[in-house]
Amino acid sequence: MSTTRTSERSLLLFSGRAHPDLAARIAATLRTRLVPTQARDFANGEIYVRHEESVRGADCFVIQSHTAPINTWIMEQLLMIDALKRASARSITVVAPFYGYSRQDKKHKGREPISARLLADLLTAAGADRIITVDLHTDQIAGFFDGPMDHLFALPTLADHVAAHTDPARLTVVSPDAGRVRVADRWCDRLGTPLAIVHKKRDKDVAHRVSVHEVVGDVAGRVCVLVDDMVDTAGTICAAADALYDSGAEDVVVAATHGILSGPAVDRLKNSRVSRFVFTDTLPTAAATGLDKVEVLSIAPVVARAIQEIFENGSVTSLLDEL
Q: N or C end of the chain: which has fewer CB within 10 A?
């Protein structure tokens, strides 16, 4: 069966080409399958999509993680949404485990765009009624979309895995900068561990250049868990790990939701002193590194539960009670 039916309503899942493995895992968790969709590129780079089953009156969920090449996959998702709207879908929910442009959520300087808001406007214009995403870079992005945005968290998945493989009595949760302290606090509450912070200063004129200054908190002889929402070029996280080792940490583990891993990231992970990097599969890049020190946990059960709750008019907020 490709549909799930409740009270004459049908749930249909669709996947773009960005991360089909995650979409397949979500479908398997929901005990359904993905609706067949044609998707191909014309010679000039334009994208063609067509859904191969009727969607009239159905609740449709369009799964596409915004991985590289990010603009291509965002455009493909917009076209999939437009096709569903024009085919009389009852509702259209965007499932974007990684929400693109989330670091551009405000103006740092004059004459800059607020790209995260623009993306929300594009999804609205295409016909999206709702968005499901995981670990936004900042909570305020949830207010950029005029409809419901269900902001899910990977913290329980990541924290429970780390706790299962390390003695919690030896753990210290570390925020790599001041902006992640709130998330790190949630980790501390869940694991019952102390908190430390790496104070850093980023060069505002040179992208990805970070100077780590000092560690605030006692990390000597401790197993430190550096927690973040994303690891892109890995410069910040590896520099923070070096600062922890220099302050006497016994071991450093990195836990992050989104393993973007652009440019020099894989080499930095390979050559870093960090013993383990734990990511979720919101993006396909982490699993593609081939590094023994990289572990990838599936976010599919969390996303699937949210989809089921939405379809059954349940409470997505109940999922947050696990934090």
A: N
Peptide bond into 148 cis (omega under 30): no
Secondary structure of residue 156 in the 3-state scheme: helix
Q: State the pLDDT confidence band at 66, using cuts at 50, 70 and 90.
A: very high
Provide the percentage of residues in the chain whose pLDDT is more than 70.
93
Burial degree of 3 (CB within 10 A; 0-12, 13-18, 19+): middle
Residues 6+ apart with CB under 8 A from 42: 48
Q: Which two tokens stand for residue 213?
A: 């200054």
Q: So which residues are the catalytic ones?
A: 200
Q: What is the pLDDT of residue 200?
A: 72
Give me 30's structure tokens. 């929901």
86 closest CA partner among 120, 49, 121:
49
pLDDT tens for 9-24 read: 899 999 999 999 999 9
